[in-house]
Amino acid sequence: MSTTESVGIWLNHLNFGDQATFLYKNTKIPLWNRQASEISKLSNPRLNRISMLRTLSHARSRLRSETTSLPLARNRLRSKTPSSSPLSSPYSSKRHAPKTSEVEDYSRAKDSVLLYPKDPSSAPKLFLVQPRLTPPKFLQAKLNEALCLANSLEEQRYGYFESDFFDKELPSHVVVQNPVRRSSKPRADTYFGPGTVDNIKCHLNAEDSKEEVDAVFVNAMLTAIQQRNLERIWAKPVLDRVGLIIEIFNAHAHTKEAKLQAELAALMYKKSRLVRVRGTDGRHSFGQFGEAEVVSARGRAASGTGGGFVGGAGETELQLQRRRIADRRLRLLSQIKETQRTRLLQRAGRKKRVGNKDESSATIAVVGYTNAGKSTLTSALTKTALYCNERLFATLDPTLKSCHLPSGKSVLLSDTVGFISDLPIQLVEAFQSTLEEVVEADILMHVVDSTAPNIEEHRSTVFHVLNQIGVSEEKLQNMIEVWNKIDYEVEEEVEDVKFLGEGEGEGEGEGEEEEEAELNDGLKAEETVDAFVDEGEIKNQDDDSDGWLLCEDENVSESELWKVPEVAKLDAVQNKGPHVRVSALTGVGLKELLYLINEKVEVLVEKRLKPQTIVESSELHRRKWRPPRDDDEDARLLPLDQR
Ligand SMILES: Nc1nc2c(ncn2[C@@H]2O[C@H](COP(=O)(O)OP(=O)(O)OP(=O)(O)O)[C@@H](O)[C@H]2O)c(=O)[nH]1
Ligand SMILES: [Mg+2]
């Protein structure tokens, strides 16, 4: 079908805030047309990707009555989704109507949900692809986590989630061959081997016949090229692990600081996706959807798409994108710094008041893997009601609450964002401002979900992140480890094994043969030119997709930057065990925990007092300079009869 025969979208994608005009059967549909205006929301640069999908499905259902070529139209629309500015990141945050005080720059005001209302009542339907892992217990843990991640992508409506997490249907999923398992090198073009890719396509078609799938979630880290190729083959948007987590951050962010940090994370991710790829029509384009062609500014002006001199003569689209991302990043960083300064002042004030009779004697940061029960435990200890939810990353902002200890003293407990495995350092860095609360805390309390089958992985992930953000070794050693959820009965995994049966069966049944075939295919593929990506383009990937961190170290490639570093074998990880086992829900073990905290705080206060006196005497000593004394001089000071 030719371009003019299907519903297309003509995007003035080069200017932020431009509106869209539609081309349907060679006819431009005016913007005030109801259907067109529905889809024109796609031109909102701040519209996130999932809401874009939702918008598409609304648009599709409206248009269905008028046209029969909509499935094709949808694909075309998706592949033409605008994202000409960094603000147009499909991952950018802006879900909730901002408070007046939060509307601080033109873009935020312009892109508020009031202009482009979304429908938070319907969460996107994801199809999960889980690469096979061994042992099965580990696979089960990872699959459960991925299913929870997929179901956590939901926005709040009126400040709460409409549906109960446990009432939600589990997303459809499939367990497939893991390309990293044997060959230790996934395919550069599609990550999975061709057999697996086809297999997933069949599953998707089957799912689609039952109910529409909005996007495919691959629980792995994909490169921009792999993501793009898979999107083309499956004709669905593809989210990798990092992409989904960023979406969740954006969906759950409420406060100004969380929104800024989530957007920064999205921006960094987006920048790593600026890959120049040859489109099906043979022309070079870039961006996640290949939405922008590489042309000069002069070319843009000539084609009437605007931009003109703004980018400077000869500036390519790629440079323009980079510049916009860099500008936006700087603006975000300065806004984050502003919020950081307030936090810093508050912290300094607290530190000054330490020792006052009514003030808290220490700050304790409650850290741990996401969903470990940090907020529930903090609520129980401080007798408050913090927001707790089964959805992953329910908490994104640190909250300080006062907790009374058996000694009569009080401490401040700081509940904060949870950690998760396989996250690149850049994402952790985006949340640096929030995580500063952890670095600056006097004591850390590590909440571990004792029911997690991969508890050791959870623990080492937390230690690793703490190490990355600069928590001192001393604090790590002094950390209180609390094993939570001891009330939870770990059921025999019979049901779960059955549940996995489908995926596993598929893996096992075809397993070895398919794996061999894929290995061979993979080897062949290395020699042949891929259908979508040629070797040069893969090489170019590093050139064109430099994450902003590349500016700091040009020698580091993008793939290395986004590589998850291996979990460090910290001594602390091995040495630690549970100090106390609790159930935040039932209250078992809380008293014991309070006594333990009390003990640690006493030691800390004592330590604080001790070095002060030492410093004072040494200060005195330093202030008076004395000439170095030798033995003769010592002798001279002795009384004459003793010399
Ligand atoms: N059975 C049981 N469930 C618990 C316990 N503590 C917490 N939970 C449940 O675990 C889920 C997650 O609890 P949260 O307190 O939100 O976990 P979190 O660590 O703060 O999670 P994030 O903020 O998302 O990182 C909730 O459904 C809690 O009800 C416990 O001691 N026993
Ligand atoms: Mg929480």
UniProtKB/TrEMBL annotation:
**Lineage, top ranks:** Eukaryota, Viridiplantae, Streptophyta, Embryophyta, Tracheophyta
InterPro entries reported for this sequence? G_HFLX_dom (IPR030394), GTP-bd (IPR006073), GTP-bd_M (IPR032305), GTPase_HflX (IPR016496), GTPase_HflX_N (IPR025121), GTPase_HflX_N_sf (IPR042108), P-loop_NTPase (IPR027417)
Spell out the PANTHER family in the cross-references: GTP-BINDING PROTEIN HFLX, GTPASE HFLX
A molecular function (GO) term: metal ion binding
Q: Does the keyword GTP-binding apply?
A: yes
Domain Hflx-type G as annotated: residue spans: 362-605
Under the heading Pfam families, the entry gives: GTP-bdg_M, GTP-bdg_N, MMR_HSR1
Q: Does this entry carry the keyword RNA-binding?
A: no
Source organism superkingdom: Eukaryota
Keywords for this protein: GTP-binding, Magnesium, Metal-binding, Nucleotide-binding
Compositional bias segments (type: Acidic residues): 503-519
Q: What is this protein called?
A: Hflx-type G domain-containing protein
Show the ranges annotated as biased composition (Low complexity).
80-92
Question: Disordered: where is this region?
Answer: 62-105, 500-520, 617-643
GO (cellular component) term, any one: cytoplasm
| Organism from which the protein derives | Capsella rubella
